[in-house]
Design a protein that fits this description.
The complex is a heterodimer of chains A (114) and B (112).
Chain A: E1 4-5, E2 10-14, E3 19-25, E4 32-38, E5 45-51, E6 56-59, E7 62-67, E8 72-77, E9 86-93, E10 103-104, E11 108-113
Parallel strand pairs in A: 2-11
Antiparallel strand pairs in A: 1-3, 3-8, 4-5, 4-9, 6-7, 7-8, 9-10, 9-11
Chain B: E1 5-7, E2 10-13, E3 19-24, E4 31-38, E5 42-50, E6 53-57, E7 64-68, E8 74-78, E9 87-94, E10 102-103, E11 107-111
Parallel strand pairs in B: 2-11
Antiparallel strand pairs in B: 1-3, 3-8, 4-5, 4-9, 5-6, 7-8, 9-10, 9-11
The chains are: A mainly beta (114), B mainly beta (112).
Chain lengths: 114, 112
């Protein structure tokens, strides 16, 4: 049973437009969520996180939204740039102090076209 | 500053052998986690160490073990290797057990 799901394996957007990556989770114990970005031949890089006490967190062009009732979160990238092309992983943990024990989704490959 | 360093980058082993993978976290980081990445299972949590103590362990058999040294460097060991252990093993570190983690580039293990 996959507890963190990223249902879209890939997403293609035009440069300058908004990219929206989605993630669903099933485990109600999860209350801390992270997004990682991964380039080929590199390890994932931490992007942004959100605690369940919030429903939105922003960092520059990146915003994460959390809908606890729907067990759904999304990552918005505005405006999208070609350098954002990468695989994006959603991850979840039970308590922020357990961020080192995260459950990951399978990832969504984002392609931003110039 | 230097990132998370994993050695070796590539490794080929025979079934039944054992292997030790090494991870040097970012200087000052005390929390180290290990993950296994395979095409079929994605990223699976192996274990997490903080100040030389194992805080969490994933659902892997006892053949998988790890440890953390006083300088925060970590090693993981897999004994009696099986073909299914072929994977990319990723190490990640963080200042504390919260916040996001910084991952290394991984060790690609192939068991033949």
């Amino acid at each position: 049973d996959q507890q963190v799901k990223q249902n879209s394996p890939s997403l293609s957007v035009q440069e300058g437009r908004i990219s929206i990556l989605n993630c669903d989770y099933t485990n109600s114990m999860f209350d801390y969520f992270l997004w990682y970005k991964k380039y080929p031949a590199e390890g994932p890089t931490f992007l942004i996180s959100i605690s369940s006490i919030k429903d939105k967190n922003e960092d520059g062009r990146f915003t994460v939204f959390l809908n606890k009732s729907a067990k759904h979160l999304s990552l918005h990238i505005v405006p999208s740039q070609p350098g954002d092309s990468a695989v994006y992983f959603c991850a979840a943990s039970a308590r922020y102090t357990n961020a080192g024990k995260s459950t990951f989704g399978d990832g969504t490959t984002l392609t931003v076209k110039p | 500053k230097a990132g998370v360093t994993q050695t070796p980058r590539y490794l080929i082993k025979t079934r039944g052998q054992q292997v030790t993978l090494s991870c040097s976290p970012i200087s000052g980081h005390r929390s180290v986690s290990w993950y296994q990445q395979t095409p079929g299972q994605g990223l699976q949590f192996l274990f997490e160490y903080f100040s030389e103590t194992q805080r969490n362990k994933g659902n892997f058999p006892g053949r998988f073990s790890g440890r953390q040294f006083s300088n925060s460097r970590s090693e993981m060991n897999v004994s009696t290797l099986e073909l299914g252990d072929s994977a990319l093993y990723l190490c990640a570190s963080s200042l504390l057990t919260s916040y996001g983690y910084t991952f290394g580039s991984g060790t690609r293990l192939t068991v033949v």
